[in-house]
Amino acid sequence: MSDNFETIAIRTQTERSSHKEHSAPIYLTSSYKFDDAEEMRALFANEKEGNVYSRYSNPNTSEFIEKMALLEGAEDGFATATGMAAIFTTFAAFLKSGDHIVSSRSVFGSTHQLLTNVFAKWGVTFDYADLDKPQDWEALIKPNTKIIFVETPSNPGIDIIDLEFLAGLAKKYNTLLVVDNCFATPYLQQPIKLGAHISIHSATKYIDGQGRALGGIILGTKALIAEVVAFARHSGPSLSPFNAWILSKSLETLAVRMDRHCENALKVAEYLEKHPKIKLVKYPFLPSHPQHEIAKKQMKQGGGIVTIVVNGGIEAARKFMDGLKMFSISANLADTRSIATHPATSTHSKLSEEERNIVGIEQGSIRLSIGLEHIDDILKDIEQALGS
């Protein structure tokens, strides 16, 4: 097998059946047939590898996991029904009452809810650290700290932190470093190769890339994934075979899609940085980004998300979004179609205004997920919306 990303994503495939199909079929089966009673016993005793029930494994989920593990540089993985299922399953597999998490303050709204409401009920505590203040992270680590968790780039602030730095802290204090790699994808950033123990994706986003299917994945060493599987096979957050098939096929075009997303996003960021109605533009590969040098060190390109703050607060933000004609107004991102989101009233609305302000989510903040349309049409729509 080639070492090249594109070839791995396209040519990694389940074993062909007797029908000699060129593209992997969809295995829509809940269960599997055993040759005899002894094979059934051996499979359930983990003495033999194979499929026993699609809540545990399925040829389609196995193909998706194998591809993602190869692309991330991981040994193994477990596929989940959604990205949030991947985060919850990871936390639940490794945390117990009395444990502690150090997390980046800028996290997705539902991740914030897990930390503040769900795991708090079960006796798990946490402290938030700022991505732009790496000097503060070590002081927050306690004897009972089990996980260092980080989104980089963050949602929606597009903040970056040095993963090799965090890997050093995790090693020093014997904690797990868990990275939400959703915005970067394995094409742009590979946290495990930078020292992370686990890399998580909402495959709903760029892995699918076309707004069709929900999915998530947890990647790491065989030993760590075995602990994830031990929890997941009983709690049942499994990815459906159909969605696994979609996501695996989508990986075949991930590289070419991300190249265009990044190319378009950089042009949008450069254009908006000079616009008089824009207060702030955040994009990792703009020299003005506070962590620009770190982004260039650990990311291949800057990604497809541009976060802006328009002058005039929430009213100006609403006017801009309502003026868009081609962009979709949606809470999703990473689609072929360009999308505009107002985080303060949608994805991060459950945070207090103080919490939003700390992570840079202002009333005038808008997250732009730059799609694959022609760049001239993207810029034309932005310009007319700003002028409306």
Automatic annotation (TrEMBL):
Assembly and oligomerization: Homotetramer.
A GO cellular component entry from the record: cytoplasm
Role of this protein: Catalyzes the formation of L-homocysteine from O-succinyl-L-homoserine (OSHS) and hydrogen sulfide.
Gene: metZ
Cofactor requirement: pyridoxal 5'-phosphate
GO biological process: 'de novo' L-methionine biosynthetic process; homocysteine biosynthetic process; transsulfuration
Keyword annotations: Amino-acid biosynthesis, Methionine biosynthesis, Pyridoxal phosphate, Transferase
Signal peptide: none
Pathway noted in the entry: Amino-acid biosynthesis; L-methionine biosynthesis via de novo pathway; L-homocysteine from O-succinyl-L-homoserine: step 1/1
A Pfam family the protein falls into: Cys_Met_Meta_PP
InterPro entries per the UniProt record, alphabetical: Cys/Met-Metab_PyrdxlP-dep_enz, O-succ-hSer_sulfhydrylase, PyrdxlP-dep_Trfase, PyrdxlP-dep_Trfase_major, PyrdxlP-dep_Trfase_small
EC number(s) stated in the UniProt entry for this protein: 2.5.1.-
Any GO MF annotation of the entry: pyridoxal phosphate binding
Reaction catalysed by this enzyme: O-succinyl-L-homoserine + hydrogen sulfide = L-homocysteine + succinate
Entry protein name: O-succinylhomoserine sulfhydrylase
Family statement drawn from the similarity comment of this UniProt entry: Belongs to the trans-sulfuration enzymes family. MetZ subfamily.
Modified residue annotations for N6-(pyridoxal phosphate)lysine: K205
